[in-house]
Amino acid sequence: MVFEGLFARTRNGDRAAEATPQLQPTVTRPTIGLALGGGAARGFAHIGVMRKLLEHGIVPDVIVGTSIGAVVGGCYAAKEMDNLETWARTLTVRGILGYLDISLAGSGLIGGGHLANRLETGLKDTRIDDLPIRFAAIATEFNTGHEIWLTRGRLSEALRASYALPGIFPPVLIGGRWLVDGALVNPVPVSAARALGARLVIAVNLNADLFGRGTIIASHGSDESDAVNVPAKSNGIRGMFKGERTLRRQFMGRRGRPGLPTVMVEAFNVMQDRITRARLAGDPPDVLISPRLGTVGWFEFHRAAEAIQIGMDATEKSIDAVNEAVTALSQPSNGGN
Question: Among 61, 89, 145, 204, whose CB has the most other CB atoms within 10 angstroms?
Fold first, then answer.
């Protein structure tokens, strides 16, 4: 009888254990931040990157962008990325020229009004303060070199300041500071994403595919194949009136001697590449996505569909690394118990 009672209590205890649901610990994923780098037309790859991340359930809590990275990230935060992608895919060479409001008297070759109007049409009076996620556009105060994080105010103005490539677009006055392109100081803003609360940072570097750049040529000099540099002749007043038409033709590039915009952009590209290497080495992201965009020129905005696909392909190759980082940085939680 004693043993029967003991066995009965044991069986009853087993049934009670089976009837009582076991509490399974939940997992809290880390706060995810995106650091979207600059790169002009190559920046449409950011659209593909974000599409693929969202497809795999990777939803950002923080987005920080520089230049075109700020534009794509800001449009996503404002729920305007669909419209941005539709516009980008319809761009043609002729259509791009229509946005080049050449300014011979301002502080940039392009006034930027046409592009600004396009941004304001979609974003209207959207303020960074009201976005559903944390967002910052990186800009540079040109006379001090300060790195400026635009975290409040009108979104369209912040994006204009972030992509104001010196010499191409005029500086933008915001809060009493004249601001230009953020790539001068922080081309891929990993540090800003972390400062805004991101535990896991996914960075996108648009210029990692520029192989063979930045090496040392130890011995070089002139030879017989060099063309003799002859100053161009002035066409006088008539040439002044043709200036805008000439600038429009040359802006997209031409064979032979590089024009002023090409020289400025390539010099900026070299500088941005060096700064990017240094900053990523000092503050590396948890995952770095590097779309292979070396064949896409800075002003080839008409190749948006190609750039978007390259961004998607690069992200698909990196998605395992992203998921591994999410898992490694996730924290178990028992619902506060």
Answer: 204
Task: Quick: pLDDT tens for 226-268.
Answer: 665 555 554 554 544 455 555 555 554 556 666 666 777 778 7
Distance CA 274, CA 269 (A): 9
pLDDT above 60 (res 90): yes
Contacts of 138 (CB under 8 A, 6+ apart): 64, 65, 66, 70, 147, 148, 149, 150, 162, 182, 183, 185, 186, 189, 192
- pLDDT top residue among 252 and 65: 65
- Do 269 and 298 form a contact (C-beta atoms < 8 A)? yes
Q: At CA 70, angle to CA 68 and CA 75, rounded to 5? A: 100
Structure tokens at 251: 């802006």
Amino acid at 112: G
DSSP 107: S
User: Does residue 135 sit in helix, strand or coil?
Assistant: strand
User: What's the pLDDT tens digit per position in 99-109?
Assistant: 776 766 667 66
* pTM to 2 decimal places: 0.81
Q: Which residue has the tokens 């994403």?
A: 193
* φ, ψ at 76 (rounded to 5°): -65, -45
Tell me how far CA of residue 73 lies from CA of 242, 270, 319, in angstroms. Answer: 38, 24, 19
Nearest to 299 by CA among 267, 337, 253: 253
* Active-site annotation, residues: 67, 181
Q: Which residues pair with 134 in a beta bridge?
A: 62
Residue 198, number of CB atoms within 10 A of its CB: 25
